[in-house]
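TL;DR need structure tokens for one chain.
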Amino acid sequence: MTEVNWGGNLRYRAEAIQRPASLDELREIVAAAEQIQVLGSRHSFNAIADGEQLVSLAGLPADVVVEDGAVSCNAGLTYGELAVELDRRGLALHNLASLPHISVAGAIATGTHGSGDGNGNLATAVRAVELLTSTGDVVRLARGDDDFDGVVVGLGAVCAVTRVTLDVRPAFEIRQQVFEGLSWEALDEHFDAITAAGYSVSAFTRWGAAVDAVWVKSRDAVTELFDARPATLERHPIIGLDPVNATPQLGVPGPWWDRLPHFRLGFTPSNGEEIQSEYLLPREHARAAFAVMRGLADQIAPILQICEIRTIAADGLWMSPMYERDTVALHFTWVRDQEAVERAVGLLEDALAPFDPRPHWGKVFRSAPPYPRGADFLALRDRYDPRGAFRNAWFSAATAPQRAR
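>> reply
TL;DR here they are.
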């Protein structure tokens, strides 16, 4: 039986997933493979991690080590697994994505993010990486090294990332409050104040008459948000679904790892029931993009479950969608209808084109624009993987604009 991804919209070509228990075993597997991809938690909705052979790092020892204000661990760990270890030691990461179930290396490689005006994506916490190249070399790069900013968001095409070192901070509590029915007029007029209302802020909308809900994750209590009303019951990000899988709300303080994600660690929500796409635009285009999206509401409504609006700080990682620009993200959760989603994605990319959108590398999209350091990234990839073992057809198509630059 062939393996499938999280969303169930992709069947991998490999007949089996190899699971080495040591670095030496991994080296042997990679050296013998003509073409291979490292598979994380399968939370990509395209073929970025598809390959003739697939290998998982989940079987490598976790080997969590804390020292000098950082944590290092096996890159195959999930954020949930790492969070439990950090919390036990009174430590935290700066942010988490909506799901704590995703793998550390996979999230980093695709520029995956949480939310917050002052928060960079998850890859910005990387202090160092250890890499296994297709020629069998083990390389360690640290922040400040020449190739570091190019390797971190590597799209799985440079090497196998075997170990990561992440910045940590003291553990902290945070609370979560949901506000409902925010008017578009309030969002347009007060967008900066709304996104600054908490440590992490997400607006959920179906692009109707009002914004359905705004989730504010904050250190201090937030009791009002312009013309929105505080929810009196816990909510699910997808309007109308049972909130049993969602992290606690109603302003009740709790640990960072149980508030920053939208979904609880002990559950696996939405597995196989959705397809996702996401576009990341310069923050200054937010209001204009909202107006365009509201004009498309009727056309995408039949397949849209929810759209999440959030902000992320700029960074200097070459292939990060937030490279050198503060960003507003439009994240779409669709019903699982691949053909309909691909049509909707084409419509969105055409409509958002004036705003210079960059797609999330792990979601469904039609095309990616050239990146300022895209050609440098391809040259770096050729140096680290001269025999092309880690590249696949998806990578060649997705990075074509980088070659043309």
